[in-house]
Amino acid sequence: MLRELKEAVLEANLALPKHGLVTFTWGNVSGISRQDGLVVIKPSGVAYEKLTADDMVVVDLDGRVVEGDLRPSSDTPTHIELYKAFESIGGIVHTHSPAAAAWAQARRPIPALGTTHADYFYGDVPVTRPLTKDEVERAYELETGRVIVETFRERGLDPVAVPAVLVANHAPFTWGKDPAEAVYHAVVLEMVARMARDTLLISGGEAQMDAFLLDKHYQRKHGKNAYYGQPGAAH
Amino acid sequence: MLRELKEAVLEANLALPKHGLVTFTWGNVSGISRQDGLVVIKPSGVAYEKLTADDMVVVDLDGRVVEGDLRPSSDTPTHIELYKAFESIGGIVHTHSPAAAAWAQARRPIPALGTTHADYFYGDVPVTRPLTKDEVERAYELETGRVIVETFRERGLDPVAVPAVLVANHAPFTWGKDPAEAVYHAVVLEMVARMARDTLLISGGEAQMDAFLLDKHYQRKHGKNAYYGQPGAAH
Amino acid sequence: MLRELKEAVLEANLALPKHGLVTFTWGNVSGISRQDGLVVIKPSGVAYEKLTADDMVVVDLDGRVVEGDLRPSSDTPTHIELYKAFESIGGIVHTHSPAAAAWAQARRPIPALGTTHADYFYGDVPVTRPLTKDEVERAYELETGRVIVETFRERGLDPVAVPAVLVANHAPFTWGKDPAEAVYHAVVLEMVARMARDTLLISGGEAQMDAFLLDKHYQRKHGKNAYYGQPGAAH
Amino acid sequence: MLRELKEAVLEANLALPKHGLVTFTWGNVSGISRQDGLVVIKPSGVAYEKLTADDMVVVDLDGRVVEGDLRPSSDTPTHIELYKAFESIGGIVHTHSPAAAAWAQARRPIPALGTTHADYFYGDVPVTRPLTKDEVERAYELETGRVIVETFRERGLDPVAVPAVLVANHAPFTWGKDPAEAVYHAVVLEMVARMARDTLLISGGEAQMDAFLLDKHYQRKHGKNAYYGQPGAAH
Question: Where is each Class II aldolase/adducin N-terminal domain found (chains A, B, C, D) (predicted)?
Answer without folding.
Answer: 7-197
